[in-house]
Automatic annotation (TrEMBL):
Descriptive protein name: Glucosamine-6-phosphate deaminase
Keyword Transmembrane: no
Species lineage: Bacteria, Thermotogati, Deinococcota, Deinococci, Deinococcales
Pfam families linked to this entry: Glucosamine_iso (PF01182)
Organism per entry: Deinococcus ruber
A GO-annotated cellular component: cytoplasm
Length: 227
């Protein structure tokens, strides 16, 4: 595990953008599993600025969706596909993305791609990854699930007056743990306890993020999350 502490969330974004850009330079056809949520947004914005300046070319990268709510229309503002498109795919100039709609088709699409090269993840307050809520064993597959109270609570922050959908689909722990590299982004004092448990507690399905210690993991956190 590489743990990189940055003074604040903007410095975190620059460091994370450097990490991702280096991977894309090394392999222009990189396949990236893409989290939404608040944490990676400054990183995606930084990458978008670099792409707009012509500093980096994402046109051969494939973006793979990490999770999605069920039962929304394509134009629903809560669609996580829409969020990934607006924040990542479009500003970076990515031409190919894989949508998460059917578990079997999704895992077949990833196999056809040759697997996931890089997973960019945020850290749930209870260690969830995507919608893999505790307990999620390493073999937990891509699946449809009912949102737990913890998922409903942590997702409420995104949608203001709109309700949080009740069902979702998530890339499985199997997909996440088969990534050739994982970049976990963590900011804010509210993530301090779970970051400690992720890196120093027991490796257990009860803290799905602790299972990331089995894969090549880079954590970039701000000081508030690691003091
Ligand atoms: C988002 C996702 C979630 C978030 C996690 C942290 O696609 O899968 O697991 O990464 O809930 O959310 P933030 O970054 O908003 O604190």
């Amino acid at each position: 595990v590489t743990l990189d502490i940055q003074p604040d969330s903007q410095a975190l974004a620059v460091q994370a953008a450097d990490f991702i850009a280096a991977q894309v330079r090394a392999k222009p056809t990189l396949s990236i599993l893409v989290a939404t949520g608040n944490t990676p947004m400054p990183t995606y914005a930084e990458l978008g600025r670099r792409a707009a300046r012509g500093d980096i070319d994402f046109s051969r990268v494939t973006a793979v969706q990490l999770d999605e709510y069920l039962g929304l229309s394509d134009h629903d503002p809560r669609s996580l596909w829409g969020w990934m498109e607006r924040s990542f795919v479009t500003p970076l100039g990515i031409r190919q993305s894989i949508r998460l709609a059917d578990p079997a088709a999704f895992e077949a699409d990833i196999a056809a791609l040759g697997g996931i090269d890089l997973a960019i993840l945020g850290l749930g307050p209870n260690g969830h990854l995507g919608f893999n809520e505790p307990p999620s064993p390493p073999t937990a597959p891509t699946r449809v699930l009912a949102l737990t109270p913890a998922s409903l609570e942590s997702n409420r922050a995104y949608w203001g007056e709109l309700s949080v959908p009740t069902h979702a689909i998530t890339a499985g722990m199997n997909v996440i743990l088969s990534a050739r590299a994982v970049l976990l982004l963590v900011n804010g004092a509210h993530k301090r306890d779970i970051l400690r448990r992720t890196l120093e507690g027991p490796e257990t399905p009860d803290v799905p993020s602790s299972l990331l210690r089995r894969v090549p993991l880079t954590v970039i956190a701000d000081e508030a999350a690691w003091t």
